[in-house]
Design a protein that fits this description.
Alpha-Beta Plaits; 21% helix; two-stranded antiparallel sheet; 90 residues; alpha+beta; 4-stranded antiparallel beta sheet
Protein backbone atom coordinates (compact mmCIF):
# COMPACT_ATOMS: atom_id res chain seq x y z
CA UNK A 1 0.00 0.00 0.00
CA UNK A 2 1.33 3.41 -0.94
CA UNK A 3 1.31 5.74 2.05
CA UNK A 4 3.19 8.72 0.61
CA UNK A 5 3.46 10.00 -2.95
CA UNK A 6 6.29 12.31 -4.05
CA UNK A 7 5.07 15.87 -4.54
CA UNK A 8 7.03 17.49 -7.38
CA UNK A 9 6.75 21.22 -8.07
CA UNK A 10 9.27 23.95 -8.86
CA UNK A 11 9.51 24.77 -5.16
CA UNK A 12 10.06 21.17 -4.07
CA UNK A 13 12.66 20.65 -6.79
CA UNK A 14 14.65 23.60 -5.44
CA UNK A 15 14.28 22.18 -1.89
CA UNK A 16 15.55 18.80 -3.09
CA UNK A 17 18.92 20.39 -3.85
CA UNK A 18 19.16 21.15 -0.11
CA UNK A 19 18.20 17.60 0.91
CA UNK A 20 14.48 18.16 1.59
CA UNK A 21 11.93 16.10 -0.34
CA UNK A 22 8.15 16.68 -0.31
CA UNK A 23 5.56 13.91 -0.16
CA UNK A 24 1.77 13.93 0.13
CA UNK A 25 -0.13 11.44 2.27
CA UNK A 26 -3.64 10.89 3.63
CA UNK A 27 -4.66 13.03 6.59
CA UNK A 28 -4.46 10.01 8.91
CA UNK A 29 -0.75 9.43 8.19
CA UNK A 30 1.80 10.32 10.87
CA UNK A 31 5.48 11.22 10.73
CA UNK A 32 6.36 7.71 11.92
CA UNK A 33 4.30 6.17 9.09
CA UNK A 34 6.10 8.27 6.49
CA UNK A 35 9.51 7.57 8.02
CA UNK A 36 8.85 3.81 7.96
CA UNK A 37 7.53 4.05 4.39
CA UNK A 38 10.66 5.85 3.13
CA UNK A 39 12.86 3.27 4.89
CA UNK A 40 10.92 0.32 3.41
CA UNK A 41 10.39 1.74 -0.09
CA UNK A 42 13.74 3.42 -0.77
CA UNK A 43 16.06 1.92 1.88
CA UNK A 44 17.00 5.36 3.24
CA UNK A 45 16.57 6.49 6.84
CA UNK A 46 15.12 10.01 7.11
CA UNK A 47 16.95 12.45 9.40
CA UNK A 48 13.87 14.56 10.17
CA UNK A 49 10.33 15.10 8.97
CA UNK A 50 8.11 18.20 9.00
CA UNK A 51 4.42 18.12 8.23
CA UNK A 52 1.66 20.53 7.27
CA UNK A 53 -2.04 20.03 6.55
CA UNK A 54 -3.36 21.02 3.14
CA UNK A 55 -7.03 21.89 3.32
CA UNK A 56 -9.32 20.82 0.51
CA UNK A 57 -10.28 23.28 -2.19
CA UNK A 58 -13.86 24.24 -2.95
CA UNK A 59 -14.69 23.18 -6.50
CA UNK A 60 -17.78 23.75 -8.57
CA UNK A 61 -19.38 21.54 -11.19
CA UNK A 62 -22.47 23.12 -12.65
CA UNK A 63 -24.60 24.37 -9.78
CA UNK A 64 -23.10 21.90 -7.31
CA UNK A 65 -20.12 22.65 -5.10
CA UNK A 66 -17.88 20.17 -3.34
CA UNK A 67 -14.63 20.14 -1.41
CA UNK A 68 -11.60 18.13 -2.43
CA UNK A 69 -10.01 15.91 0.20
CA UNK A 70 -7.72 17.05 2.98
CA UNK A 71 -4.13 15.78 2.67
CA UNK A 72 -0.91 16.20 4.58
CA UNK A 73 2.29 17.45 3.03
CA UNK A 74 5.46 15.98 4.53
CA UNK A 75 8.93 17.42 4.06
CA UNK A 76 11.51 14.65 4.52
CA UNK A 77 15.17 15.49 5.25
CA UNK A 78 17.53 12.82 3.93
CA UNK A 79 21.22 12.32 4.76
CA UNK A 80 23.66 14.28 2.63
CA UNK A 81 24.25 12.71 -0.78
CA UNK A 82 21.01 10.67 -0.79
CA UNK A 83 18.16 11.43 -3.21
CA UNK A 84 14.74 10.05 -3.98
CA UNK A 85 14.01 9.01 -7.56
CA UNK A 86 11.85 11.47 -9.50
CA UNK A 87 13.39 14.64 -8.04
CA UNK A 88 16.19 15.00 -10.59
CA UNK A 89 16.09 17.82 -13.11
CA UNK A 90 16.89 16.55 -16.60
Amino acid sequence: MTIAIPYVTEKTLSLSEKGWFAMTAPKTASKVDVKNYVKAQYGITAESIRSSVRKGEVRRKGKHTFTTGITKLFYVKLPEGKKLPGFEIK
